[in-house]
Amino acid sequence: MSPTEVTWSYLDRRTIVASTLTVAGVCVAAGVPTAIGIATASLGWALGTVIPAAVLIVAGTVVVETIRLRKTRYRVLPDRVELTKGIVVRTRRSVARDRVRTVDLTAGPLARYLGIVTVKIDTGEQSEWNSSSFALYAVSRDEGERLRAELLDRASAGEATEEGRLATFDPRWIRYAPLSFVTPTLGVAAYGAVLQVAEWFGLQNGVITWTIDLLSGFGLVGGIAVVVVVGLVIGLIGSLGLFVEMWWNYRLDRESAGTLRVRRGLLTSRSISLEEERLRGVELVEPLGVRTAGAARVDAVATGLRQQKDDDKTDRKTLLPAAPRAEADRVAAAVLREAVPPTSAVRLRAHPVAARGRRIRWALATVAVPVLTLALLGLLLSVDVLLHLAWICALVGVPIGVVLAVDAYRNLGHGLTGGYLVARSGTVRRATVALQRRGVIGWTARQSIFQRRKGLLNLTATTAAGTGAYTIYDVGENEGLAFAEEAVPDLFGPFLERR
Fold first, then answer.
1. Which 8-state DSSP code applies to residue 8?
2. pLDDT at 313
3. How many secondary structure helices (H) and strands (E) does the chain include?
4. Which residues pair with 311 in a beta bridge?
5. pLDDT tens digit string along 42-82?
């Protein structure tokens, strides 16, 4: 079929409604505090400026979106996908279909109500001069599903692929949400939001003064404890809500077209597809809080999942949210089509004791920085409170640092099982990666001057998938080089001294 025989398709007209209502909501959210601030001086001036400005912005949005709808068109040819867009500057994109790696569908609450989705087509390539992805905002839900199926269908008629459900959301997984670092982060963000809103109304100083007066009856330590507890409660509620919004209705399916599809989301629905032939392994991620509860997350190690600057760079590669470790191992095995999960099929080799000493020294040095800083400032400024904070930090930080350092050493390990290279490291964020040996395209061995004295080195496996490199930290020099040769023969061999 020639390109002239394929007609162009246009975006869905409901996009105008979605964009207009979104801009109207932004105008209300921004205009209300602005109008209140102006109204303190003159109510008439506030109504005469804010309302006409909002109406003008909404009307402008309708005009721009109508023009954009007429100027944006796309079509799928047998060998490529074409997109033409632009109002002032016209842009035409053409992407080869065999380079398309992912097709993601996203729909917020308003888009879901209107029955439209945003389709993001990505090749996974990184280029300084040319973007490797483009989005269609927005098309109908049926059209989005058609584009996803058509662009990712690599299987031929004689290559039928087994399909079926690999994992489904379990409400019991919600209990792992508060154990992440998101909880305290949301608590701090809540306090910042309160102060920001108070600043809009000119009440920030009053809020701070009122809070200090309210907590004065608890004393210094009690007041700090109340602030921390309230922040944690807010973070707890926020983390639970965030987890439910992101992962409710989660499903992981293997489709006949040779793709893995993750669907999730309560308010904003997301559909992320990944070609199995691009999969090079999996990574079990166990943040400290989640690990103490016996849970783990499963991420895909695949080509084409480029590191993006937007907020979904981690979520796009997540195949399973925080779930019991046994479930994570099962899903990892199912995704890789293995009878036994490579992440737990082999007993990892321990690293030399010298690696433990390095981690303890790093931990003590990390604790020493704030302790010495507080002590020095306390002496120079003659402030006793800083001196007390210094010895309290040392008293609390040293044992915690040593415990984390010993745990980090125990978590070090590497091994081989079947066609996979397995490496584990980390304590605050422990990660176990199972990487296909055929996916390793190079090795890098690095030694600092301190490692050289202890006979240690860092061994990095280079791959075109995932983060691009996975490191085995502080492995014995001879053992590490022999392991590299055993994992991928003849790749590192010429640099080995055989005895």
1. P
2. 43
3. 13, 20
4. none
5. 556 556 676 788 889 999 999 999 999 999 999 999 888 99
- In this structure, the strands spanning 133-140 and 73-76 are unpaired
Burial class (CB in 10 A: 0-12, 13-18, 19+), 358: buried
Distance of CA 99 to the CA centre of its chain: 23
> What proportion of the chain, given as a percentage, has pLDDT over 90?
54
- Region 289-304 average pLDDT: 92
Q: Print the domain residue range for 43.
A: 3-152
CB 303 within 8 A of CB 283: no
φ/ψ of 451, rounded to 5, equals: -65, -35
* Closest to 274 in 3D by CA, of 232, 303, 246: 303
H or E element at residue 205: helix 204-215
3-state DSSP call for residue 68?
helix
Contact 297, 285 (CB under 8 A): yes
Sign of the Cα torsion 377, 380, 385, 389 reads positive
pLDDT tens-place string over residues 124-138:
665 544 556 788 998
Q: Are residues 138 and 8 in the same domain?
A: yes
253 occurs within a structural domain: no
Examine residue 311 and state whether it is found in any structural domain, yes or no.
Answer: no
Query: Is the bond preceding 46 in cis, omega lying within 30 degrees of 0?
Result: no
What six digits make up the tokens of 183? Answer: 């909880």
Tokens read off for 425: 């490291």
